[in-house]
Amino acid sequence: xxxxxxxxxxxxxxxxxxxxxxxxxxxxxxxxxxxxxxxxxxxxxxxxxxxxxxxxxxxxxxxxxxxxxxxxxxxxxxxxxxxxxxxxxxxxxxxxxxxxxxxxxxxxxxxxxxxxxxxxxxxxxxxxxxxxxxxxxxxxxxxxxxxxxxxxxxxxxxxxxxxxxxxxxxxxxxxxxxxxxxxxxxxxxxxxxxxxxxxxxxxxxxxxxxxxxxxxx
Length: 217
Ligand code: DX5
Ligand code: ZN
Description:
The chain is an alpha/beta fold. The chain is built from 8 helices and 8 strands; from the N terminus they run βαβαβαβαββαβαβαα. Strands 1-8-7-6-5-4-3-2 form an 8-stranded parallel beta sheet. It is globular and about 40 Å long. D-xylitol-5-phosphate binds at residues 7, 9-10, 32, 34, 67, 140, 142-143, 145-147, 176-179, 196-200.
Protein backbone atom coordinates (compact mmCIF):
# COMPACT_ATOMS: atom_id res chain seq x y z
CA UNK A 1 0.00 0.00 0.00
CA UNK A 2 1.15 3.50 -0.78
CA UNK A 3 2.65 5.45 2.12
CA UNK A 4 1.74 9.03 3.00
CA UNK A 5 4.28 11.43 4.48
CA UNK A 6 2.77 14.69 5.77
CA UNK A 7 5.27 17.54 5.58
CA UNK A 8 5.71 19.51 8.80
CA UNK A 9 6.63 22.56 6.71
CA UNK A 10 2.90 23.33 6.66
CA UNK A 11 2.45 22.79 10.41
CA UNK A 12 2.35 25.67 12.91
CA UNK A 13 6.01 26.06 13.93
CA UNK A 14 4.98 27.58 17.26
CA UNK A 15 3.10 24.36 18.06
CA UNK A 16 5.08 21.62 16.35
CA UNK A 17 3.90 18.99 18.83
CA UNK A 18 0.35 19.35 17.59
CA UNK A 19 1.55 18.94 14.01
CA UNK A 20 3.47 15.79 14.85
CA UNK A 21 0.56 14.46 16.89
CA UNK A 22 -1.79 15.08 13.94
CA UNK A 23 0.46 12.87 11.79
CA UNK A 24 0.65 10.07 14.34
CA UNK A 25 -2.98 10.07 15.47
CA UNK A 26 -4.34 10.00 11.94
CA UNK A 27 -2.18 7.12 10.78
CA UNK A 28 0.39 8.84 8.56
CA UNK A 29 3.13 6.40 7.53
CA UNK A 30 6.14 8.72 7.56
CA UNK A 31 6.74 12.22 8.95
CA UNK A 32 8.47 14.44 6.38
CA UNK A 33 10.85 17.05 7.82
CA UNK A 34 11.92 19.74 5.33
CA UNK A 35 15.29 21.26 6.20
CA UNK A 36 16.19 24.40 4.21
CA UNK A 37 19.36 26.46 4.42
CA UNK A 38 18.60 29.66 2.49
CA UNK A 39 21.29 28.74 -0.07
CA UNK A 40 20.22 25.60 -1.88
CA UNK A 41 16.70 27.02 -1.69
CA UNK A 42 15.77 30.63 -0.90
CA UNK A 43 13.80 29.74 2.22
CA UNK A 44 15.04 28.76 5.71
CA UNK A 45 13.00 26.30 7.78
CA UNK A 46 14.51 24.42 10.72
CA UNK A 47 17.57 22.34 11.55
CA UNK A 48 18.72 19.29 13.46
CA UNK A 49 17.53 20.45 16.89
CA UNK A 50 13.97 20.44 15.64
CA UNK A 51 14.42 16.89 14.32
CA UNK A 52 15.94 15.79 17.64
CA UNK A 53 13.10 17.36 19.62
CA UNK A 54 10.53 15.72 17.34
CA UNK A 55 12.25 12.35 17.81
CA UNK A 56 12.16 12.77 21.58
CA UNK A 57 8.44 13.46 21.34
CA UNK A 58 7.55 10.58 18.97
CA UNK A 59 9.68 7.88 20.59
CA UNK A 60 11.41 5.22 18.52
CA UNK A 61 8.51 4.07 16.39
CA UNK A 62 7.89 7.01 14.07
CA UNK A 63 9.66 7.03 10.70
CA UNK A 64 11.32 10.45 10.39
CA UNK A 65 11.89 11.24 6.73
CA UNK A 66 14.41 14.10 6.69
CA UNK A 67 14.62 15.99 3.39
CA UNK A 68 17.79 18.09 3.34
CA UNK A 69 17.50 21.02 0.95
CA UNK A 70 20.97 22.28 1.84
CA UNK A 71 24.26 22.88 0.03
CA UNK A 72 26.97 20.31 0.69
CA UNK A 73 24.77 18.12 2.90
CA UNK A 74 27.79 15.93 3.68
CA UNK A 75 28.75 18.53 6.30
CA UNK A 76 25.69 17.80 8.43
CA UNK A 77 24.95 14.09 8.10
CA UNK A 78 26.22 13.19 11.60
CA UNK A 79 23.94 15.75 13.20
CA UNK A 80 20.80 14.44 11.54
CA UNK A 81 21.74 10.83 12.27
CA UNK A 82 22.36 11.80 15.89
CA UNK A 83 19.02 13.66 15.94
CA UNK A 84 17.21 10.43 15.12
CA UNK A 85 16.45 10.59 11.39
CA UNK A 86 15.20 7.29 9.94
CA UNK A 87 15.95 8.42 6.39
CA UNK A 88 18.26 11.23 5.26
CA UNK A 89 17.57 12.45 1.73
CA UNK A 90 20.09 14.71 0.02
CA UNK A 91 19.78 16.49 -3.32
CA UNK A 92 21.82 15.17 -6.24
CA UNK A 93 22.37 18.83 -7.23
CA UNK A 94 23.73 19.83 -3.81
CA UNK A 95 26.84 17.67 -3.52
CA UNK A 96 29.88 16.91 -5.64
CA UNK A 97 30.27 13.54 -3.97
CA UNK A 98 26.93 11.79 -4.15
CA UNK A 99 28.41 8.32 -3.88
CA UNK A 100 30.45 9.18 -0.77
CA UNK A 101 27.45 10.94 0.77
CA UNK A 102 25.20 7.89 0.31
CA UNK A 103 27.91 5.70 1.81
CA UNK A 104 28.39 7.99 4.80
CA UNK A 105 24.65 8.02 5.55
CA UNK A 106 24.64 4.22 5.57
CA UNK A 107 27.73 4.11 7.78
CA UNK A 108 25.81 6.26 10.26
CA UNK A 109 23.15 3.55 10.39
CA UNK A 110 20.49 5.60 8.60
CA UNK A 111 18.61 4.92 5.37
CA UNK A 112 19.76 7.04 2.42
CA UNK A 113 17.64 8.92 -0.09
CA UNK A 114 18.51 11.05 -3.10
CA UNK A 115 16.26 13.81 -4.40
CA UNK A 116 16.01 15.23 -7.90
CA UNK A 117 14.75 18.71 -8.71
CA UNK A 118 12.09 18.85 -11.43
CA UNK A 119 14.69 19.80 -14.07
CA UNK A 120 17.28 17.16 -13.09
CA UNK A 121 17.27 13.98 -15.16
CA UNK A 122 17.45 10.57 -13.53
CA UNK A 123 20.84 9.91 -15.20
CA UNK A 124 22.49 11.54 -12.16
CA UNK A 125 21.41 8.68 -9.90
CA UNK A 126 21.19 5.62 -12.13
CA UNK A 127 24.55 4.21 -10.93
CA UNK A 128 23.34 4.28 -7.32
CA UNK A 129 19.82 2.87 -7.62
CA UNK A 130 20.98 -0.49 -6.27
CA UNK A 131 21.92 1.03 -2.92
CA UNK A 132 19.55 3.98 -2.42
CA UNK A 133 16.65 3.39 -0.03
CA UNK A 134 14.50 6.21 -1.46
CA UNK A 135 14.41 8.27 -4.63
CA UNK A 136 12.58 11.54 -4.01
CA UNK A 137 11.22 13.23 -7.12
CA UNK A 138 10.40 16.88 -6.58
CA UNK A 139 7.24 17.94 -8.41
CA UNK A 140 7.67 21.61 -7.45
CA UNK A 141 10.76 23.82 -7.35
CA UNK A 142 11.84 23.21 -3.75
CA UNK A 143 11.61 25.98 -1.19
CA UNK A 144 7.97 26.48 -0.33
CA UNK A 145 4.84 24.51 0.44
CA UNK A 146 1.53 25.14 -1.29
CA UNK A 147 2.78 25.23 -4.90
CA UNK A 148 1.16 23.56 -7.88
CA UNK A 149 2.45 20.17 -9.03
CA UNK A 150 4.56 20.29 -12.21
CA UNK A 151 3.00 17.57 -14.33
CA UNK A 152 5.94 17.26 -16.73
CA UNK A 153 7.87 15.40 -13.98
CA UNK A 154 5.48 12.44 -14.12
CA UNK A 155 7.19 10.65 -17.07
CA UNK A 156 10.47 10.68 -15.07
CA UNK A 157 8.68 9.05 -12.13
CA UNK A 158 7.27 6.42 -14.49
CA UNK A 159 10.72 5.74 -16.00
CA UNK A 160 12.24 5.26 -12.54
CA UNK A 161 9.39 2.92 -11.57
CA UNK A 162 9.93 0.95 -14.77
CA UNK A 163 13.65 0.60 -14.11
CA UNK A 164 12.91 -0.46 -10.54
CA UNK A 165 10.58 -3.21 -11.79
CA UNK A 166 12.96 -4.38 -14.53
CA UNK A 167 15.99 -4.65 -12.29
CA UNK A 168 14.29 -5.65 -9.06
CA UNK A 169 15.48 -2.65 -7.06
CA UNK A 170 14.00 -2.06 -3.62
CA UNK A 171 14.00 1.75 -3.35
CA UNK A 172 10.89 3.68 -2.37
CA UNK A 173 9.77 6.17 -5.03
CA UNK A 174 8.65 9.28 -3.19
CA UNK A 175 6.93 12.28 -4.77
CA UNK A 176 7.08 15.69 -3.12
CA UNK A 177 5.33 18.93 -4.03
CA UNK A 178 1.77 19.88 -4.84
CA UNK A 179 0.33 16.43 -4.06
CA UNK A 180 -3.45 16.53 -3.54
CA UNK A 181 -6.38 14.15 -3.93
CA UNK A 182 -6.95 15.38 -7.51
CA UNK A 183 -3.52 14.24 -8.74
CA UNK A 184 -2.76 11.31 -6.40
CA UNK A 185 -4.17 8.65 -8.73
CA UNK A 186 -1.88 9.71 -11.59
CA UNK A 187 1.12 9.58 -9.26
CA UNK A 188 0.17 6.15 -7.91
CA UNK A 189 -0.28 4.87 -11.47
CA UNK A 190 3.14 6.25 -12.43
CA UNK A 191 4.61 4.05 -9.69
CA UNK A 192 5.02 6.35 -6.68
CA UNK A 193 5.22 4.42 -3.41
CA UNK A 194 5.33 7.40 -1.01
CA UNK A 195 3.40 10.67 -1.38
CA UNK A 196 4.41 13.77 0.57
CA UNK A 197 1.55 16.11 1.44
CA UNK A 198 2.14 19.39 3.24
CA UNK A 199 -0.56 21.97 2.62
CA UNK A 200 -3.10 19.30 1.60
CA UNK A 201 -2.65 17.44 4.92
CA UNK A 202 -2.47 20.41 7.28
CA UNK A 203 -5.23 22.25 5.42
CA UNK A 204 -7.61 19.30 5.59
CA UNK A 205 -10.45 19.44 8.07
CA UNK A 206 -10.76 15.65 8.04
CA UNK A 207 -7.19 14.34 7.91
CA UNK A 208 -8.16 10.66 7.89
CA UNK A 209 -10.37 11.23 4.89
CA UNK A 210 -7.50 13.09 3.18
CA UNK A 211 -5.14 10.16 3.82
CA UNK A 212 -7.73 7.71 2.45
CA UNK A 213 -8.22 9.72 -0.71
CA UNK A 214 -4.46 10.08 -1.30
CA UNK A 215 -4.16 6.30 -0.88
CA UNK A 216 -7.03 5.75 -3.32
CA UNK A 217 -9.21 3.99 -0.74
C1 DX5 B 1 9.06 21.86 -0.81
C2 DX5 B 1 9.14 20.79 0.25
C3 DX5 B 1 7.89 19.99 0.31
C4 DX5 B 1 6.68 20.81 0.69
C5 DX5 B 1 5.46 20.13 0.23
O1 DX5 B 1 10.28 22.49 -0.93
O2 DX5 B 1 10.20 19.91 0.01
O3 DX5 B 1 8.04 18.87 1.16
O4 DX5 B 1 6.57 21.00 2.07
O5 DX5 B 1 4.37 20.95 0.49
P1 DX5 B 1 3.07 20.89 -0.41
O6 DX5 B 1 2.50 19.49 -0.25
O7 DX5 B 1 2.21 21.95 0.16
O8 DX5 B 1 3.47 21.13 -1.83
ZN1 ZN C 1 10.17 17.91 1.13
